[in-house]
Specification:
The protein is α/β, with parallel strands linked by helices and 392 residues long. The protein has two domains: 8-80 and 156-226 and 321-379, FAD/NAD(P)-binding domain (3-Layer(bba) Sandwich); 97-151 and 228-317, 2-Layer Sandwich (D-Amino Acid Oxidase, Chain A, domain 2). The protein contains ten helices and 19 strands. It has helices at residues 15-27, 61-75, 77-80, 106-118, 128-134, 157-170, 214-219, 285-299, 350-362, 376-379, and strands at 8-11, 33-37, 53-54, 97-101, 123-126, 145-149, 153-154, 174-177, 180-186, 189-195, 200-202, 205-208, 227-239, 249-251, 257-262, 265-269, 306-319, 326-329, 336-340. The termini are far apart. It binds flavin-adenine dinucleotide.
Length: 392
């Protein structure tokens, strides 16, 4: 085989690129698939810097079904991804997700709940006193109730990424350490990529799986995506509280969220309108002190004594158009597929997105109709909103 000719090139070897490569190779081991990743140390990769949470609490049926599929795959993930004697452990903790709501948003939260219940998501409404009974650290006077999803949980995102990567390579995909400098195309058809060192890789299909760098990459093909790299911070806290209970991921009405690691150790974060746009990874602890801590203490009074023991900054690929994934072939450029704009909820979507893109490329009926997220909606100015959804 000429090693510069492929059927499919995944431009970006994060969880989307590696999951797509896996689903391609699994379905058709004869396929020539290359994952091209500029930084295999994954220092700034969003998957590795994510919280690794998955939830069924969405308001769009398709987003719910995507996460349901991810949970289904998780049940057999270690076996499915085994390579020889090696079995990945993703450490899935099903602690549940609790989305608290204020009076103003109570009705829309309950409407979302009805859809989730109809799709068998095992979610339920909790009145404030019930929340207090189960999670006594919370001040129940500060919210109007909440939706608890018992199937939701958090896992090690790096383990998921490495499992897809290792399995895809074991099945025959090539993993190439290089930066894709340009998408090559002619007469409306994709031809491959040019790497930063000048090498050309030929392929009829190129997937833009470059995460928060995806807008830059699409631009090399003359395509302008409404997606910005936006810095999001996570703070690690050692609190003086010593809860005996296990806490779910808690999302407060403002979008502030809290994840218990164990005992009094928690992680928290929040998206702000003025979060820096660009490739900035500098942790700004002042933001925690000034905004997050006072708000946390309001909801969890026992958190008035804590230490910030760590933290990091990563990038959301924020889709400014409608906040949802952009999936599939770009209209006008045959063979150029997008897996972009996941807006902070992409990790949990990797299983469904990988399979969907692989099936799209192979020309078979997709297992799940995700055409709602087609890039054509951008060209046609037909946004698809989640509604009130708080993005975690
Ligand atoms: C702080 C934080 C918390 C999050 N929490 C959650 C969560 O709890 N649940 C959830 O579902 N999602 C979460 N997310 C979002 C999630 O991380 C992303 O949606 C998802 O990981 C995106 O995967 P990806 O493969 O598209 O991007 P990435 O994982 O970033 O992979 C893209 C890869 O492409 C490579 N690349 C870029 N340009 C090029 C190029 N030109 N050539 C070659 N390689 C290139 C990059 O080096 C990178 O490794 C969070 C994100 C952050 C930042």
């Amino acid at each position: 085989m000429n090693d510069t000719i492929f059927d499919v090139i995944l431009a970006g070897g994060g969880v989307m690129g590696c999951a797509t490569a896996y689903y391609l190779m699994q379905a058709d081991p004869a396929m020539r698939v290359a994952i091209v990743e500029k930084d295999p140390s994954y220092r700034y990769n969003s998957t590795v810097l994510s919280d690794g949470n998955t939830r069924l609490q969405f308001n769009l049926k398709e987003n719910i079904l995507i996460s349901k599929y991810g949970l289904e795959r998780l049940a057999t993930f270690s076996d499915d991804m085994a390579v020889g004697d090696w079995r990945p452990e993703v450490d899935f903790r099903r602690q549940g997700n609790l989305f608290l709501t204020d009076e103003e948003h109570r009705a829309s939260a309950q409407a979302g709940l009805a859809l989730q219940e109809s799709l068998d998501c095992r979610v339920g409404w909790l009145e404030p006193d019930e929340v207090k009974r189960r999670f006594p650290l919370l001040d129940e006077r500060k919210f109007a109730g909440g939706v608890f999803g018992e199937l939701d949980g958090t896992m090690d995102p790096q383990a998921v990424l490495m499992a897809f990567r290792r399995k895809a390579v074991d099945l025959g995909a090539a993993f190439i350490e290089a930066e894709v400098a340009e998408i090559l195309h002619a007469r409306g058809k994709t031809q491959g990529v040019r790497l930063a060192d000048g090498t050309t890789l030929t392929a009829g299909y190129v997937v833009n799986s470059a995460g928060a760098w995806g807008t830059q990459l699409a631009r090399t093909a003359g395509i302008e995506l409404p997606v910005d790299p936006v810095m999001r911070q996570v703070f690690v806290l050692q609190t003086a509280a010593e809860p005996r209970e296990s806490y779910p991921l808690i999302a407060f009405p403002s979008g502030l969220y809290l994840i218990q690691e164990h005992g009094g150790r928690f992680m928290c974060g929040k998206s702000f309108e003025d979060d820096p746009v660009g490739f900035d990874f500098t942790v700004n602890q002042a933001k925690f002190m000034e905004f997050l801590w006072p708000e946390l203490v309001e909801y969890v009074p026992a958190f008035d004594r804590l230490k910030v023991t760590g933290g990091w900054a990563g990038l959301y690929a924020v889709n400014r158009f409608d906040g949802n994934a952009i999936l599939g072939e770009w209209p006008g450029l045959e063979g150029f597929l997008l897996a972009n704009g996941f807006s902070g909820h992409g990790f949990q979507q990797c299983h469904a997105v990988g399979r969907y893109l692989a099936e799209t490329i192979r020309g078979v009926e997709p297992f799940l109709d995700l055409s709602l997220f087609s890039p054509a909606r951008i060209v046609n100015n037909a946004p698809v909103f989640e509604g009130r959804g708080k993005l975690v």
